[in-house]
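User: Hey, quick favor. My workstation is busy. Could you predict this chain's structure for me?
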Amino acid sequence: MWFEILPSFGIITAVLSVPGFAMYGLHLLTLDNAYRRNTDQRWERVMYVRDMRLTGNPYKSNGLEAIPDK
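Assistant: No problem, here it is.
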């Protein structure tokens, strides 16, 4: 019957979801942040480097207060 495919569907779904959850834990372990910034576009890479230079943490929200006065 049709319900005989449910166990194999569940196993395949569980196995395919493991990498997504593993990346969450791996980023939390290595980057001290569970979320990774998207750096596919050049502008995003520029903003990542800028945030790292200004605050030392690219995941912190930056505003005008993050720019040092001279």
